[in-house]
Amino acid sequence: MKFFIDTANLDQIRQAQSLGILDGVTTNPSLMAKEGVKGKKQIFKHYKAICDMVDGPVSAEVFSTDFKGMIKEGEELHKIDPDKITIKLPCTEDGIKAVKYFSQKGYRTNCTLVFTVGQALLAAKAGATFCSPFIGRLDDIGEDGIQLIEQIVDMYSYYGFETQVLAASIRHTNHILRCIEAGADVATCPYKSIIGLIDHPLTTKGLEIFCKAAESMK
Ligand code: G3P
């Protein structure tokens, strides 16, 4: 399973990159706003900084909600770094049309805000590189986010779609573990949840014992 970090925070991206396990980055308008970037110039500069830091796809979401606007924005975003920028488009009628438009041009796309298998089918049929089901937000309303990941993974495999299932809206480490079991291609996670995979009391305790032994041999 690939690991993307779900943030626009440069320090966190740098930290995850230095772990040596980072495969890409996803951002969204809320995450960009959190970093205080304002205006097109600053926003594009920020995306460029992320692309320069990471060796993998960087999802940059369009702000427009209409097809024409999405195409204009997507083209501009693509130019920032054609090898890394992945145009993130919402799973709406206009969004699906835009996914189709860009995938026909050979651009990488991420169809976001996916909450059903039907939406995932349309994203794949339009040629999306990634389909992003939001598991945390489904859990929030009493539904089962992980079950949706399993259903989409099965459906893509049954029909032979190449679209990758990118589990998004991951809130904690257990979500990541469940995504591994469900067969997600990618999990995009907050830095804290990735670190949660490392921390284990027996690792800490075991290391203390080994350090004491090593000290006694000096
Ligand atoms: O990848 C999408 C993600 O950023 C949304 O997460 O926690 O706002 O549902 P959340």
Question: What can you tell me about this protein's structure?
Answer:
- It is a single chain.
- The protein has 218 residues and is an alpha/beta fold.
- The protein contains 11 helices and 8 strands.
- The protein has helices spanning 10-19, 29-34, 39-53, 67-80, 93-104, 117-125, 135-140, 145-159, 173-182, 191-198, 201-216; strands at residues 2-6, 24-26, 58-61, 85-90, 109-114, 130-133, 164-167, 186-189.
- The protein has an 8-stranded parallel barrel, surrounded by 8 helices.
- The N and C termini lie far apart (41 Å).
- The model has no long low-confidence stretch (mean pLDDT 97).
- Residues 6, 26, 28, 31, 134, 136-137, 168-169, 171, 188 line the site of SN-glycerol-3-phosphate.
Instruction: Show unreliable segments.
Output: none
Can you count the helices?
A: 11
Name the beta content range: 15-25%
The number of distinct β-strands equals 8
Bound molecules: SN-glycerol-3-phosphate
Strand order of the largest sheet: 1-2-3-4-5-6-7-8
* Secondary-structure element string: EHEHHEHEHEHEHHEHEHH
| Biggest β-sheet description | 8 strands, parallel, barrel
Mean pLDDT rating: 97
For the termini, the CA-CA separation is 41 Å
Structural class assignment? alpha/beta
Using only C-alpha atoms, the radius of gyration works out to: 19 Å
Compact overview of the structure:
The protein is α/β, with parallel strands linked by helices.
Give the arrangement of secondary structure elements.
Blueprint: E1 2-6, H1 10-19, E2 24-26, H2 29-34, H3 39-53, E3 58-61, H4 67-80, E4 85-90, H5 93-104, E5 109-114, H6 117-125, E6 130-133, H7 135-140, H8 145-159, E7 164-167, H9 173-182, E8 186-189, H10 191-198, H11 201-216
Parallel strand pairs: 1-2, 1-8, 2-3, 3-4, 4-5, 5-6, 6-7, 7-8
Helix pairs in contact: 4-5, 6-8, 8-9, 9-10
